[in-house]
Design brief:
single chain; 130 residues; mainly alpha
């Protein structure tokens, strides 16, 4: 299979970039959905305790779960914005016949680090409500 000459537009490459963007959009939507669940988790625990007449050590102020949830939702929004911007930049390069430049940092690594930090925060929160 002969390689394409440099500078020639390739629809398959653009479609691959679009699939990558769509995968990132799914990741962003999943983060937003998870953020919503986390933000409502404290309220769920409090209502469950009321229904079962159980006295659990749950603070009346559930702001930590709300803030963690908000952070996840905002991370999802940020992932979607970055994915869209990177896709538009990549397609712009491809249509001009240029090779897209490799990013200076990998968003997947950044998302993994932020999710690890949020995961530690959730673990600490769950330990403290026990």
């Amino acid at each position: 299979m002969a390689s394409e000459p440099a500078g020639k537009y390739d629809l398959n490459t653009e479609l691959a970039a679009e699939r990558t963007m769509l995968a990132w959009l799914r990741t962003g939507l999943a983060l937003m959905g998870f953020g919503f669940v986390v933000s409502k988790f404290g309220l769920f625990l409090r209502k469950l305790a009321e229904l079962r007449d159980v006295h659990m050590k749950i603070s009346a102020d559930q702001s930590l779960s709300v803030w963690i949830g908000v952070a996840l939702v905002l991370l999802g929004v940020l992932v979607n914005i970055i994915a869209s911007a990177r896709f538009l930049k990549t397609v712009s390069h491809l249509r001009r016949g240029e090779s897209p430049k490799a990013p200076k940092w990998q968003p997947s690594v950044l998302v993994a680090l932020v999710m690890s930090i949020i995961g530690i925060g959730i673990a600490v929160y769950l330990i403290n409500i026990r």
